Amino acid sequence: MLVLVLDTSTPAVTAAIADVASGVSVLASRVTVDGRAHGELLAPAVSAVLDQAGAGPSDLAAVVAGVGPGPFTGLRVGLVTAVAMTQALGIPAYGVCSLDGLGRGTSGRVLVATDARRKEVYWAVYADGTRVEGPGVAKPADLSVSVDRAVGDGALRYADVLGLPVDEEPRYPSPAALAARAARRVRMKAPGEALTPLYLRRPDAVIPGERKPALR
């Protein structure tokens, strides 16, 4: 059972093909780190991993998408692509918290943190790979959690503020971990889900209000 895995919740533009028939095996993966080019990079990445896996769109059983948390613009690119493909192919979509793509497989109590911009991080706490707190968004200095260490791009950026040991890897969500989070639903042929983005805060861009007169 082949699934397309997409995640654009971080600067890493991720596309992969995974076989989840028994266990999870990633057949092809492309991860390009560029926080300003999600829209330009994702479609070619999808085409490339399909070619590398020797598969076509009609071979896909589902799309697994990281739903964030993540910045508004980048996250939207991945989710719009996922929805468009599932509608065109008539296959289900399954959403996964993108932080789970970092926390799955960790041992002990681990803080997962990705860069939320504005000098903040998106965060969650995992105990032996299971999320037990979060997701949330906060300034690193305001985080008060009981953990052994931290992982993720946000943790690396603010390691001095967090005051925790930080693993170099994983830095961005793993396609294998994201696929594993959805594998049971795919195998059971569970109904597809609405891909609701975890923005956790309002987007930077807002609709301008009514103009006020310069003079009264």
TrEMBL record:
<dbReference type="InterPro" id="IPR043129">
    <property type="entry name" value="ATPase_NBD"/>
</dbReference>
<feature type="domain" description="Gcp-like">
    <location>
        <begin position="35"/>
        <end position="171"/>
    </location>
</feature>
<dbReference type="Pfam" id="PF00814">
    <property type="entry name" value="TsaD"/>
</dbReference>
<protein>
    <submittedName>
        <fullName>tRNA (Adenosine(37)-N6)-threonylcarbamoyltransferase complex dimerization subunit type 1 TsaB</fullName>
    </submittedName>
</protein>
<dbReference type="InterPro" id="IPR000905">
    <property type="entry name" value="Gcp-like_dom"/>
</dbReference>
<dbReference type="GO" id="GO:0005829">
    <property type="term" value="C:cytosol"/>
</dbReference>
<dbReference type="InterPro" id="IPR022496">
    <property type="entry name" value="T6A_TsaB"/>
</dbReference>
<dbReference type="GO" id="GO:0002949">
    <property type="term" value="P:tRNA threonylcarbamoyladenosine modification"/>
</dbReference>
